[in-house]
Every structure is written in structure tokens, then in C-alpha cells.
């Protein structure tokens, strides 16, 4: 019997609800495809912070290191400043485990009310490959001159050759297995120093992949193209912040934030990878029982794929489509009436 040890961190807000539904679906897939998921749950969250003063224990990273994968809901909740919750859990995990690839696939889902709902599923199928360890998300900087008219804030971005090259190479490899088209999102009019550096490395790596159609596009124009001509986009590679923004945009045009999964991948596999939804803890709907569990369930499918359980992964994403098409899984954000639990149950049943 194949058994996988999974660390589950439901976190805050709707994270708790959607992780519960996803576990239900994944356990069903495991039973059907003959493997075991051994879950260990951690209560690391803003609620824990309020009790103890930290988001996770001091040896948190060490404790996670023994797992085959990490399944995260979302962290962050009013009452605890975001920089505390994020630098206290999410960002340290991504960095400590060198999860330098953030993979964010989106596809048009049946029943969506997106402005692009009349497109075909073939036209709207892309992957954002987001740099996940450096770039604009740096600790370098700060605020100065509090209380003075000249008060200012300074932020330094860090782009290393190693960091930029490895994410671009990953994106080329991925594009080679898909349509053979890759677009790099930058802002390279020479205004921002880091961007021509990124472009230069992109061009160098492109020389190693003559079979991939490589294109560089300004992020502002790419955002417009994503809405107007999504059929011309397949794999997108971008920096940490650009990839973050493009992934919510890509989610919005396919099915909404409730539908978009995400994998924080450590490609060599020397550390655990982490799977989560693109969305956050949604404090505005937390506790109402109406959060859409699909993004978290699809993140679970990505986790199964990562663990090598390809048939089960396909069954889970197939079950999402079946249950959505049958109208049983759609929560209010997706134009339906299902509660979080009803949606999760319908999808679990569709797994078989
Ligand atoms: P959000 O993604 O939580 O919510 C944005 C909007 O989308 C809200 O109106 C919300 O109700 C809706 N939404 C999101 N997911 C949904 C779902 N599954 N079903 C139905 N509606 C859904 O983004 P935000 O409001 O900017 O952030 C809220 C908190 O979450 C903040 O503390 C933020 O820092 C945190 N956050 C955490 C993560 C993470 O842990 N990975 C990711 C993003 C945001
Ligand atoms: C995401 C989130 C995080 C990010 C925030 C909460 C730090 O928006 O996972 O997309 O920007 O990485
Ligand atoms: Mn984001």
C-alpha cells in the first residue's frame, strides 16, 4: 500500500472550511485508487497568534520537513496585521523549502459567469508560472521619518541570476510539454533595473529551447491581452508580484477566485511542496458556510499529481467538472445555491 504523510494547515477564515471539504474529496480518491493519505493537522493561524504570540512554533519548519506534502488553507485575519501573519507562516514556508515555483493553472469551468464565458475550454487554458522566492517580496526596506512631511517608504527588489534563471527554465520545460508557447511578463521599458536583467536571462535560456515559441511582453499590455485574446496565451512566466497579480486576473476570467488552485513547488523534491488555493481567507464571507471549496479541491488534485497519483488526480478534477456541470457544486460566488459542505459532498460523490 502506498501511503503519503500530509501536513494540513487549515489556517484562518474560509481556509478551515475549504480544507475540510478538500480532505473529504481526497480521502475518497485515495480509497478508490488504493493509497493512503495520513493527515496531521496543525492549528497554526491568527487564532494561535492571538493565544501564543506566534503563528507557528519555533521548530515549525523542522516539523513540516518530514512530510511528503503540505496542504494549506489560507492565513491572515483582521485583528492580526497581514505582515505579521504572512511573514510568520506563509512566506517562511515557501522560502525554507525552496518552493521557488508557484504554479497556477486556470481553465474555463462549466457554468462560469465570467465575462469570457463564451470562449471554449481550449481557448482558455493557461498556467501562470510565478517566481516564488525573491523579487519584489523582499525584507529589504522600511519606513523612515515618521511624523515628518518628508516621510517615505523604501522597498528593494532582489533578483538573482540563479533565481531568475531557474524559474524561467522551469517555464520553458513546462511550455515544451504543452502548446510550446511561453510569454514572459516584464516591465522592461528600462524604467525598472531588474526587468531588463530578467529579459536578458529569458533570452539566454530561450536559446536552449528553440522548439518553444518565446515572447516577451510588457505586463500592462499582457493584462489587456489576457482578457481580449486569452487564446493567444498558454504558459506565462513572471516575477513574484507580477505573477501574483496575473494569477488573480487569470482566475477572474475563468471562474473566479473560488476556482483557482496553486502549487508551491520545490522542483528537486528535496523538501516538501505546498498546495493551497490562490485566494485568501475571505474574512467578508468567513463563517457563513458559503465559501467555494473548488479551488482547494483542485489544489488537492495538484498535490496528488505531485505525489505521482495521476489517475486519482484526474478523477478529482473530473469530479469537479461533473458536479459543476450537474449544477450540484456551484456556491453563490459561482451563481449557485450550494453551501460549502454541499459542494464538497457533491464533488466527493462524483469521485465515485
Ligand atoms: P481573498 O482572496 O481572501 O478575497 C477576495 C474576494 O474574493 C473576497 O470578496 C472573497 O469573499 C472572495 N473569495 C475568495 N475566495 C473565495 C471562495 N473560495 N469562495 C467564494 N468567494 C471567495 O483576498 P483578500 O480579501 O485580499 O485577503 C483576505 C486575507 O487573506 C488577508 O489577510 C490576506 O493577507 C490573506 N491572504 C492569504 C493568502 C494565503 O494564505 N495564501 C492568499 C491571499 C490572501
Ligand atoms: C497569494 C497571496 C500571497 C502572495 C499574499 C497573501 C502574501 O496573495 O498566495 O497569492 O502574494 O503570495
Ligand atoms: Mn495573491
What key phrases describe this protein's structure?
binds manganese (II) ion; 352 residues; Isopropylmalate Dehydrogenase; 2 domains; 10-stranded mixed sheet; two-stranded antiparallel sheet; alpha/beta; binds 3-isopropylmalic acid; 41% helix
How does this structure look, described?
By secondary structure, the protein is of the alpha/beta class. The chain has two domains: 1-99 and 260-352, Isopropylmalate Dehydrogenase, CATH 3.40.718; 114-143 and 154-254, 3-Layer(aba) Sandwich (Isopropylmalate Dehydrogenase). It is 41% helix and 20% strand. It is built from eleven helices and twelve strands. The chain has helices at residues 14-33, 46-52, 60-64, 82-96, 161-177, 194-206, 219-228, 240-254, 294-307, 310-325, 340-351; strands at residues 2-11, 35-41, 69-74, 101-107, 125-131, 141-144, 152-155, 181-186, 213-218, 235-238, 261-265, 273-277. The chain has a ten-stranded mixed sheet with strand order 2-1-3-12-11-4-5-10-8-9, sandwiched between helices. Helix 6 (194-206) links the parallel strand 8 and strand 9 (213-218). Helix 1 (14-33) crosses helix 10. The mean pLDDT is 97. The site of manganese (II) ion (MN) has 2 residues, from helix 8. Nicotinamide-adenine-dinucleotide binds at residues 14, 18, 74-76, 82, 86, 90, 257-258, 276, 279-285, 291-292, 295, 333.
